[in-house]
Amino acid sequence: MNPTAISVKNLDLYYGEKQALKNIHVDIDERSVTALIGPSGCGKSTFLRTLNRMNDLIPNVRIEGQILIKDTDIYSDEVDVEMLRKRVGMVFQAPNPFPKSIYENVAYGPRIHGLNDKKKLDEIVERSLRGAALWDEVKDRLKDRATGLSGGQQQRLCIARALAVEPDILLMDEPTSALDPISTLKVEELVQELKKNYTIVIVTHNMQQAARISDKTAFFLNGDLIEYNDTDKLFSNPDHQQTEEYITGRFG
Amino acid sequence: MSQLAEKKNFFRKEKTWREKMEALIPGFLLLCGLLSVLTTVGIVFTLIKETASFFAEVPFVDFITGTKWTALFSEDQREFGILPLLIGSLQITLGAAVVAVPLGIGSAIYLSEYAPERIRRVIKPVLEVLAGIPTIVFGYFGVTFVTPLLRDFFPDMDFFNALSASIVVGIMILPMIASLSEDAMRSVPRNIREAAYGLGSTRLEVSLKVVLPAALSGIVASFVLALSRAVGETMAVTIIAGSTPSMSFSYLESIQTMTAFMVQASTGDISYHSLPYYSIYAVGATLFVITLTMNLLALYISRRYKEEY
Ligand SMILES: Nc1ncnc2c1ncn2[C@@H]1O[C@H](COP(=O)(O)OP(=O)(O)OP(=O)(O)O)[C@@H](O)[C@H]1O
Ligand SMILES: [Mg+2]
Q1: Is B263 part of any domain?
Q2: DSSP single-letter state for residue B308
Q3: Would you say residue B249 lies in a domain?
Q4: DSSP H helical segments within A51-199, as ranges?
């Protein structure tokens, strides 16, 4: 079995008084796809965003417990949040390219982390765009505005942009919910490809998608992690009744 | 039964009255709109007419290339070269820009990207109030506070001088730049900022490399608008910078701007339909062309380079 990439222990999260995550325990394998499913408002995004400390940007969030990545508690004081986010990249629900050129979108990350060599940047941009299966579609118009791409292309550009800083872990929050079926398929294929090199945690509302692309699935309900299991097992023979009810569509 | 009939009647009456009002409203509103359009047309018309009278006597080329402005001197010594006044206005505008642009951007970045909501909610209205202070108050603030302070550093400086006026005008237009730029930066969607943070950007990197460029059109438009206000600024520069048309481009000496000349001329006892009288309109028309151009430029910039997020 793969070694553990992320180890979450006793994680509680509060928005002000309201508890949004309750005592979560999860070990996420390296180079695998982990899907997070559950009804709206159950805490999937919140959980995902604890993994690269994006919740730090929200006032009044309190977090207790531990998240270990490479044996370091990412919430300890020594952790450099910018470095953490470089290692743990993120792709968001709606494509959010910068209002810059396609090239500049991808080069942005490496640039802020200190790379200015034009040749190296060119290399990284090409490699990342290839990695996101977008290169052939945009190679002749790298100087064009990214906002002129189609939604599906924009989302793959956002994936390329995340890959450009060479993360180990990629967090994806419903990356295909704003996309048409063909673009969705492309992103799904891409995820399968990427897991050879990256640890991927993906939130999805689409259970077929979770079943298709993930190795393990975590089912959340009202801030609790109800079941965390191999995807095949969870969708065919879940251990918990609530999981069963959810995947058979009886609620949520 | 009779009660019901009464009620019906009552409703009908009310309705017709409201319908009448409704029908009148668009006409009334149109009138309001027309009034301001007509006023503008009237102003421009007067401006053009009186300016034409001026150029009937003074050649246009002499006006825009002449280096001496002595419009209010006795008749044999009069010269109408607008360059000294243009330079005066340019000096004030440049000086104000040097003060207001960096400070304005700085405050906008602070308010939009750093300030906690609580602080922002206090400062933003204060900025707007500041923008509403009568400019004459700024004028007296200049001569009683800024000028004496500056003279501690530059003892040879004239009492009336361009430096003090530039600084005060800069302070005057600062809230406008800060507030409009902040609006532009705030309208950059949150998810773009999140993308930048998600790649490991610091707050400063997000501000300078993502939000600022994304809001650039709005920010530049705010500069142009604010500077066009600086060009047109009247009371403060009249009081602080004096009334000595000068080609020297010195900030330590007294100068005169286009606006200050117009104040000086219209408060003096020049006779109606004399050449000095017409010269007010010629200067006014020049000012109008400049500020109009700047306003159109601001509009063009914010439209042409507007970001689609
Ligand atoms: N910034 C916030 N402040 C306060 N409460 C929040 C905030 N963000 C989320 N919550 C609350 O925390 C709970 C979990 O929200 P979260 O966004 O993680 O749900 P989710 O599972 O991602 O839902 P969805 O499927 O709709 O995206 C919800 O009850 C939500 O209202
Ligand atoms: Mg969510």
Answers
A1: yes
A2: P
A3: yes
A4: 81-87, 102-112, 118-131, 135-138, 151-163, 181-194
**Cα-to-centroid distance, A115 and ligand 1 (Å):** 36
**Cβ of B213 and A100 within 8 Å?**
yes
Domain span including residue B241: 98-304
Q: Say which residues have a Cβ less than 8 Å from residue A109's Cβ, sequence separation at least 6.
A: A86, A161, A162, A164, A165, B199, B200
Question: By the 8 A CB rule, do B196 and B122 touch?
Answer: no
- Would you say residue B122 lies in a domain? yes
Q: Is residue B82 part of a domain?
A: no
Asked if B194's CB is within 8 angstroms of A57's CB, the reply is yes
Q: Which pLDDT tens digit goes with each residue over A114-137?
A: 999 999 999 999 999 999 989 999
Contact A158, A186 (CB under 8 A): no
Assign residue B295 the CATH number of its domain. 1.10.3720.10
- The finding on whether A43 has its CB within 6 A of some atom of ligand 1 is yes
Asked if A83 is an interface residue toward chain B (Cβ–Cβ < 8 A), one would say yes
Residues 173-232 of B with CB under 8 A from A: 189, 191-192, 194-202, 205, 209-210, 213-214
A252 C-alpha to center of ligand 1: Å? 15
Residue A67 is classified by DSSP as: E
Total domain count, chain B:
1
Across the interface, whether the CB atoms of A162 and B198 are under 8 A apart is answered yes
Ligand nearest to C-alpha A92: 2
**Per-domain residue ranges for chain A?**
4-247
Mutation site for B-interface testing, chosen from A98, A100, A150 by largest number of B Cβ within 10 Å: A98
Please name the residue whose Cα sits nearest to atom 30 of ligand 1: A41
**In this predicted complex, what is the ipTM?**
0.93
The number of helix segments (H) and strand segments (E) in chain B equals 14, 0
Side chain identity, residue A55 = N
Q: Which residues surround ligand 2, an ion (CB under 5 A)?
A: A 45
Between the two ends of chain B, the Cα-to-Cα distance in Å is 63
pLDDT digits (tens), chain B, 309 positions: 455 555 556 556 566 787 888 888 999 999 999 999 999 999 999 999 999 999 999 999 999 999 999 989 888 899 999 999 999 999 999 999 999 999 999 999 999 999 998 999 999 899 888 888 999 999 999 999 999 999 999 999 999 999 999 999 999 999 999 999 999 999 999 999 999 999 999 999 999 999 999 999 999 999 999 999 999 999 999 999 999 999 999 999 999 999 999 999 988 888 888 999 999 999 999 999 999 999 999 889 888 877 766
In whole angstroms, give the CA distance from residue A158 to residue A155.
5
CATH architecture of A4-247: 3-Layer(aba) Sandwich (3.40)
